[in-house]
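User: Here's a protein and a ligand (6-O-phosphono-beta-D-fructofuranose). What would the complex look like?
Assistant: Let me lay out the input and then the predicted complex.
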Amino acid sequence: MKIGVLTGGGDCPGLNAVIRAVVRKGTFHYEDGFVGFMEGWRGLLEDKTMELDLASVGGILPRGGTILRTSRTNPGKYPDGLQRCAANLRKHGCEALIAIGGDDTLSVAAKLFDAGVKVVGVPKTIDNDLSGTDFTFGFDTAVNIATEAIDRVHTTAEAHNRVIVVEVMGRAAGWIATYSGIAGGADVILIPEVPFDIDQVAELIRQRHARGRYFSIVVAAEGAKFADGNEKHDGTSTLQGGRDEFGHARLGGIGATLASEIEKRTGFETRSVVLGHIQRGGSPTAFDRVLATRYGLGAIDMVHRGEFGQMAALRGNKIVSIPLAEAIAKNRTVDQEILDASTGILDTLDYPAPGVS
Ligand code: F6P
């Protein structure tokens, strides 16, 4: 069978491992041929292709990025965009398409499926905010990078008696902030799911220092929000502005805003660092290489079982097939048990609690 493959949306460590697994199993087990559509949906819209065979996937397992390259192109924004995509697949004799991406990429895949294209999806995003799957690949790598950064920031904060705010990615969900915050022993973790009161954050840090600590680490997801809808920062960057073709604002700046508000309220010297795309670059962790490989193998098997309009998903420790519609229905926010773990390990305000000695 001839199968098209593309990677869309923000890149993510492990994309090459998925591509490699699809091509290797497809070639050796099913005698498939592949067409690589380049730069996400743009390649399918504009018919930009590359050869995708055993030779082209050689040596790519540990490499970050994606050999197919990527973009945030949305065919829905172009006249006859979906029809053009379907026509280009036909032109290359592709009977099926494997689309590797997050909610935006997979929402286009679902529309193409409704239009009659045989599509299988693979869940990708460092944000881990896709529904229907326990983990997306790339998340573990991002968490490890953020944790290492928090460890490093700890020693310099400690040396200077400072508060340091670490801004991590996470537009609508605080998975990276929560996991790296727990793993890195942060003192405050701020995520989009739980709007924060800046006075309480400052007071918690003040009380911690009154108990003898002389530095603090705050981890904030880029999409973290002030509880009062603080006009000083609505989560969107004033520097960059702009929206992508899927309507998402570019985020950034919460770390700097928080640092100045904390310093103002506590008098403690405060700095901020933005990890940004460092979290998306470089080599995937072993966990992500294995997960991405399993997703790729799952996707090519799904194509041959005729499970179209479906996405490979991780449930428990099994790769299963779920409807694309379920994966894109809503953002998957941090679940209660993990939220409880993050609050359970942090200092509480007004410790010792009233009446407890
Ligand atoms: O969607 C993944 C993500 O890394 C988000 O966490 C972040 O807001 C966004 O991509 C950044 O996108 P770009 O690479 O287009 O700046």
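Summary: The longest helix spans residues 139-160.
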